[in-house]
Amino acid sequence: MGKTPDWSRLEAYAGSMSKAEFEQAWQQIYSEKNGLPPPFKFTDTHLEVPTGQLAKTTCRIPFRADKEASTSDQKPSWRRARDLPPLEERPPLSDLHIALDPGHIGGSWAMMEERFLSFKPGEDIREGDLSLLTAKILKERLVKEGAIVSLVRESLDPVTTKRPADFEAESRKVLTDAGFPTPAASYQGLTGDAKLLTVQWQSEKLFYRVSEIHARGERVNQQIKPDVVLCLHFNAESWGDATSPQFSPKNHLHVLVNGCYSPGELQQQDVRFEMLLRLLSRVHEEEIPLATTVAESMARVTRLPAYLYSTPNARQAGSNPYVYARNLLANRLYECPVVYLEPFVMNHEETYHRLRGQHFLGRTLIGGKLVTSAIEDYVNGIVRGLLSYYQTNRPS
Known about the structure:
CATH architecture of the domain at 81-157 and 212-393: 3-Layer(aba) Sandwich
Largest sheet: 7 strands, mixed
CATH class of the domain at 81-157 and 212-393: Alpha Beta
Helix content: 25-40%
């Protein structure tokens, strides 16, 4: 479902980056930590990328010599902190355009998304609802600090105009190509892997995991054009059977930036193009320090420990234990710095009850303990992190 790349967009970065800069970004951020060689090559003079297209099989981007000035006039649509206008005693986030992307959809779609959690009849939490509430409260706080704020999703409705039924043909092809030529149409009464091997499940996945994110990408890149996107999520640990979920003793926080591409992912021409577009536009130079500052603030406010990845699909980005590089569709498609937040474990018992309380100020009694609102902590952590970063790095 990806778009056919316009390789001329990469060629516009000719002479903008030295080989040393490219190699450092590739080795420290965009590649797997101990990954195999990528499906492109770079020499002392240029980067050479197979396009996967017959009309033009290779895209060639010259490097600039180490001591030469950049010969590219290519400018991204987003602005670094240092490129914002001087504050001149205005509110600290003045001129900064922030897009808030509330994760998932919520509402009646939450069960389909598998982001619906209930430990007792008549009560539940839905990640899409919680992320939208967090975004609306966060928007109010950021606007008070002078920011221009846009919501990527403004309601409990999908951004995409497509629906699961629109993907039945693609789903049948996916299953047929995988060796299942006669898949069941519905997963009614099925569980586990049997559920995954149905046209219904595959169609729903293409709807909410792929089509929805592509629609948000179009909105971000073509309409909003922000300086930064904050993707707001809540984490979860495995809770077992959805009809009889289990609480988890774990509660943690981590923040993601884009990176850590596997050679298999880069075999896809759209993924290869999107990764190189981010690398050559130097989005990581703003994204990682911004994410690090926000992560430090979130850690102070929430007092959550850092999540530890044990799988190869993520790697630490810099020295902060809370910040990881990972290749996700949202943080790859959005053509600007993206800070992707994953605080709190929804099926941690105290967190579950804090989130059921929605948003409140001060402290309230939960489980015999006075606690703050998890959403209020989430919002405060982000606001303090953004204030710290932009007050330090933009012209005064």
